[in-house]
Specification:
The protein is α+β, with helices and mostly antiparallel strands. Helices cover 33% and strands 17% of the residues. It has three domains: 34-39 and 233-315 and 551-578, Periplasmic binding protein-like II (D-Maltodextrin-Binding Protein, domain 2); 63-225, Dipeptide-binding Protein, Domain 1 (Dipeptide-binding Protein, domain 1, Alpha-Beta Complex); 320-545, Dipeptide-binding Protein, Domain 3 (Dipeptide-binding Protein, domain 3), CATH 3.10.105.10. It has 20 helices and 20 strands. The strands form six sheets. Strands 8-9-10-1-11-18-12 form a seven-stranded mixed sheet.
Length: 580
């Protein structure tokens, strides 16, 4: 028989071992994920955030009717459990999930969906507004201060008719015409569902016709949702000290699978050397890297570089595509950037780039760097369209413009009926403009009569140059907010939209194809229409495409589940885990 003292000692030892095991388990469940970033979120309001810094937080605190499955852009039910489309293509019925609660504890119902969509239609209608209201412009911009009460009442009537609750768990959304992209565009972060009772109880719009015009003129940065979150996501906001640190904690009442990490901490650390040092020391789990060569990090102990350009198991990392647009209607008023404003060797006319050969002259003079051995293997992606390559509509067979001095000279000689080459030109850009410097290097060497100047502009002159579109060229870029190529086609190719219209570009056949795609429910046919747009735009050369770079994640080697869904601005916190 075992000695009682020995029994007690063994029993105590077993309890200690069990306690330690439980402690380890609790630590595993209570992990924190620390991410040091360059910049902070500018707001937590889904309707106030346009930057990736804010949206990367919003995407994890809020949810939409549908979300994305893993690393794909395939939509899967989230706050909705299913969706029906009427035979005429105009009525979308969403069946809502039961038993869901907001972070406040308020129950999620159809009233929250109706409130969220109507709030978005009031403040920023966008593509959804085109479908539901017949306009992408908010009422204040469209009707102005002088708009009549009847006009405002009509606008509200369209908002009110667009969304209807049949019961607490069924919402109906009606478009004016059949719209094949409405379902996808409703999944934009701008249409995430917010806690309507929380918003109303803290000074937000009360959801009624009586006060909706007050919301039009409101400043969202002064609203409760600017620095508070009212979502249903797997994480809820714990604290936020703007410019310093944001902390989110696991939502204990989340309707879906519980995340493995307990807290996510976003720390704002502008100094990249400090961020790298913290990761190497094991003090953080992820860092932003912009200037440090990845090759310097790959062999560091404890560091893992997740690079989609070299690892085919990772989802595509191209998140942003952009181009240099040639301005076809430069403002002539006090515009020092176009000299005399005439094609006389001392300037160019304001519509200089309306000549397709002038555009191609510059497009072929643009050095993308893709033929430079110095940049080989750096993961650069050279797009053929202003469209992210994971969209089925993307056509890799379309050529793109790159440095070809022979072709540049050919089109320079042909531009303006030969007068450009014969007479010469003067064009300028701000002294710190890298695009102007690049054109200066290639074009001035081609013809001594060509002057591409870099001029010092006062802050007032520079602001005016941007506001009045005096600039001869400007670079612009876009990223996806919902899974249909129409977003890019409309923003960058269609002459009726604000971005393209500002550069004076118009192609009636392109406009016709995009309008046709808007009503085409067959996705394969719709994508082919978009590809036709890409081919026409190549022939027209309204822009020169810029190289894109894959978004590389730099994390601790203890981290698993860090990846970028192509539609996500950053990582999905609920997929993260850490080895102990």
């Amino acid at each position: 028989m075992m000695n009682t003292t020995v029994q007690r000692a063994m029993s105590l030892s077993a309890k200690v071992i069990l306690s330690l095991a439980l402690l380890v388990a609790c630590l595993a469940l209570g992990q924190s994920y620390v991410f040091q970033r360059m910049f902070d979120a500018e707001t937590l309001d889904p309707l106030g955030s346009y930057s990736p810094w804010g949206q990367s937080v919003i995407e994890n605190l809020y949810e939409g009717l549908y979300g994305y499955s893993g690393a794909t852009i395939d939509l899967t039910p989230q706050l909705a459990t299913g969706h029906d489309l009427s035979d005429d293509g105009r009525t979308h019925t969403f069946h809502l999930r039961s038993g869901v609660r907001f972070h406040s504890g308020n129950p999620f119902t159809c009233a929250d969906v109706e409130y969220s969509i109507e709030r978005a239609l009031i403040l920023d209608p966008g593509f959804v507004g085109q479908s539901l209201l017949g306009t992408a412009t908010d009422a204040l911009s469209e009707l102005g201060e002088a708009g009549s009460d009847e006009e405002y009442a009509d606008y509200w009537g369209r908002i009110d008719a667009a969304v209807e609750c049949l019961d607490d768990h069924t919402v109906v959304i009606r478009s004016l015409e059949p719209d094949p992209i409405l379902f996808a565009s409703l999944m934009s972060p701008r249409y995430f569902v917010i806690d309507s009772e929380l918003a109303k109880g803290n000074g937000g719009w009360d959801g009624t016709e009586a006060t909706w015009r007050d919301l039009l003129a409101s400043d969202l940065s002064e609203g409760y949702l600017h620095d508070h979150a009212g979502g249903t996501g797997a994480f809820r906001l714990a604290s936020w000290e703007p410019g310093v640190r944001l902390v989110a904690e696991r939502n204990p009442d989340y309707w879906g699978p519980a995340p493995q990490v307990e807290t996510v901490v976003y720390e704002v650390v502008p100094d990249e050397e400090a961020r790298v040092a913290a990761l190497v020391a094991g003090e953080v789990d992820q860092i932003d890297v912009r200037m440090t060569p990845l090759s310097e990090l790959e062999d560091r102990p404890g560091v893992k570089v997740l690079d989609p350009s070299t690892d085919p198991t990772l989802p595509g990392g191209i998140r942003v595509v952009g181009a240099i647009f040639f301005n076809q209607m430069m403002s002539p008023s006090d515009n020092v950037l176009i000299g005399t404003g005439k094609l006389d060797g001392f300037g160019v006319p304001p519509d200089f780039f309306s000549d397709v050969d002038a555009r191609k002259c510059f497009a072929y003079a643009w050095d993308t760097g893709e033929d430079d051995p110095q940049y080989a293997g750096d993961g650069s992606f050279y797009p053929n369209m202003i469209l992210l390559p994971f969209y089925p509509a993307y056509d890799p067979t379309i050529p793109h413009y790159k440095l070809d001095l022979d072709k540049a000279e050919e089109h320079c000689r042909a531009a303006w009926g030969g007068k450009l080459w014969e007479t010469g030109m003067y064009l300028a850009g701000p002294s710190d403009d890298w695009i102007t410097q690049a054109f200066k290097d290639t074009l001035e060497a081609m013809n001594p009569k060509f002057t591409i100047d870099l001029v010092d502009l006062s802050p007032e002159q520079e602001a005016r140059a941007w506001a009045e579109m005096q600039l001869p060229w400007a670079n612009a870029a876009g990223y996806a907010s919902f899974p249909d190529a129409y977003e890019f086609m409309a923003d960058w190719y269609q002459s009726s939209t604000s971005i393209t219209a500002r550069f004076g570009y118009k192609n009636e056949e392109i406009d016709r194809l995009i309008a046709q795609a808007r009503t085409e429910f067959d996705s394969a046919k719709r994508d082919e229409l978009y590809r036709q747009v890409g081919r026409l735009a190549y022939e027209d050369a309204p822009f020169a495409l810029l190289p894109s770079f894959p978004y590389t994640l730099v994390v601790s080697d203890k981290v698993s589940g860090a990846y970028r869904n192509p539609m996500f601005t950053e990582i999905r916190w609920s997929d993260l885990s850490k080895a102990e």
